[in-house]
């Protein structure tokens, strides 16, 4: 469905993506995570055909998406601040969605307009941030595009509306399985919906693994300094903090029975790190942290 092979891209001679290779051949909901400037938006814009790579191959459904109307029929890329006509109403947006997306789901669009309580005749430019985000969500989900890319789709939504979006996303995916890529900083909220996680760091794909495996990453150990140093001598420590004679570390290991047994034998406290904390520490500058 998507194929990126050794893709390089620079902006004003500054490298943004470096030797990115990414393949996905089956319908799946996948999260994209990375710090600001990691290359997430650039990666999505290349997949959507908005830009052309300096080198390497980008294909969606076997076609180069750049300047390719046939490929665009398979695509819907909703940007964080998606450009919509300044005089458009929600009704106008729906009409344009029907025109550009052959698989458009009008019933879903109308139901989501009601769920998000969007006025049909008010200009979108006068909407609140949350209402604009809801309009963009409707355009993305109702498109039924085989490749649906959503960049920060919950920005501006309150907790209730985010829950509406997550339910609608799953319902839409179950009715029409397709490849849905979601870039979001709310990784703890979206991870239950996603089957895989792509992590970008400094323009490269650092991780691309099943979400089930990623959820188990990151072990927190607390105890006496000597005991902690002993059990972590041969593993990667990605966070460390000391208070008096007590040391707390996060190690880049799966939360497993083995580590529970080790902690119990050494009298250490053990916890599972949150996915968000694990990713933040996994992608931070490790200078000063014990290797």
UniProtKB/TrEMBL annotation:
PANTHER family documented for this protein: ABC TRANSPORTER, ATP-BINDING PROTEIN (PTHR43158:SF5), SKFA PEPTIDE EXPORT ATP-BINDING PROTEIN SKFE (PTHR43158)
Domain ABC transporter: 2-227
Superkingdom field: Bacteria
UniProt GO molecular function: ATP binding; ATP hydrolysis activity
Name of the protein in its database record: Multidrug ABC transporter ATP-binding protein
Swiss-Prot/TrEMBL keywords: ATP-binding, Nucleotide-binding
Pfam families: ABC_tran
Organism: Paenibacillus amylolyticus
Gene3D superfamilies (UniProt xref): P-loop containing nucleotide triphosphate hydrolases
């Amino acid at each position: 469905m998507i194929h990126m092979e050794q893709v390089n891209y620079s902006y004003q001679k500054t490298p943004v993506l470096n030797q990115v290779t990414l393949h996905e051949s089956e319908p799946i909901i996948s999260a994209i995570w990375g710090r600001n400037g990691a290359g997430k938006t650039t990666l999505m814009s290349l997949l959507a055909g908005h830009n052309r790579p300096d080198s390497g191959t980008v294909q969606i459904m076997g076609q180069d998406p750049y300047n390719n109307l046939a490929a665009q029929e398979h695509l819907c890329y909703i940007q964080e601040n998606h450009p919509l006509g300044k005089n458009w109403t929600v009704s106008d947006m729906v009409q344009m969605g029907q025109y550009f997306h052959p698989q458009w789901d009008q019933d879903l669009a109308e139901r989501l307009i009601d769920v998000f309580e969007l006025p049909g005749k008010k200009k979108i430019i006068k909407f609140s941030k949350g209402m604009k985000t809801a309009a963009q969500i409707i355009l993305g989900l109702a498109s039924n595009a085989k490749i649906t890319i959503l960049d920060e789709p919950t920005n501006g939504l309150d907790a209730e509306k985010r829950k509406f979006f997550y339910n609608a996303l799953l319902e839409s995916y179950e009715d029409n399985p397709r490849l849905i890529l979601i870039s979001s900083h709310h990784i703890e909220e979206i991870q239950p919906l996603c089957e895989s996680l792509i992590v970008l760091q400094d323009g490269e794909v650092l991780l691309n693994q099943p979400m089930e495996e990623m959820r188990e990453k990151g072990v927190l150990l607390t105890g006496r300094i000597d005991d902690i140093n002993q059990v972590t001598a041969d593993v990667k420590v990605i966070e460390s903090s000391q208070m008096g004679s007590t040391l707390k570390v996060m190690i880049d290991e799966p939360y497993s029975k083995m580590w529970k047994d080790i902690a119990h034998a050494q009298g250490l406290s053990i916890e599972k790190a949150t996915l968000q904390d694990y990713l933040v520490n996994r992608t931070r500058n490790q200078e000063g942290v014990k290797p």
